[in-house]
Amino acid sequence: MGDLLNGEPSAQAFNKTMLLSGKIKKFDVYVKTIDGVTKQTIIGAFISLAAAIVVILLILSEGKTYLQKDLVSRMTLDSSVGVEAIRVEFDINFRHITCSGTV
Fold first, then answer.
1. 33: helix, strand or coil
2. pTM score of the predicted model
3. DSSP state at residue 9
4. Which long-range contacts (CB under 8 A, 24 or more apart) does 56-63 make?
5. pLDDT (tens digit, 0 to 9) for every residue of the chain, 103 residues total?
6. What is the number of helices (H) and of strands (E) in the chain?
7. d(CA 34, CA 40)
């Protein structure tokens, strides 16, 4: 074992770090190739995980926006149709106004 007072890590701590490093490297999608040999890196794993998180967040955001209903309470006339008069009829129900309140 290493001497902790001298700042030397123990072999057991070193093995745990290497084991964790190996597990993280498995997430690396962007593998570097060196003369026919592939090498997975921790940086590549973090980039892959970050990209996956961004993709998931964008998909969820777009899904929420697609399913969201917008209530528009204004109407404008399209003046590009022509100059002739257009008859417009409205059938509006006011649910929260009693009949005694109307004139």
1. strand
2. 0.42
3. P
4. none
5. 444 445 555 666 666 676 677 777 777 766 666 666 667 788 888 888 999 999 999 999 999 999 998 887 887 777 776 667 777 788 887 777 777 755 5
6. 2, 2
7. 11
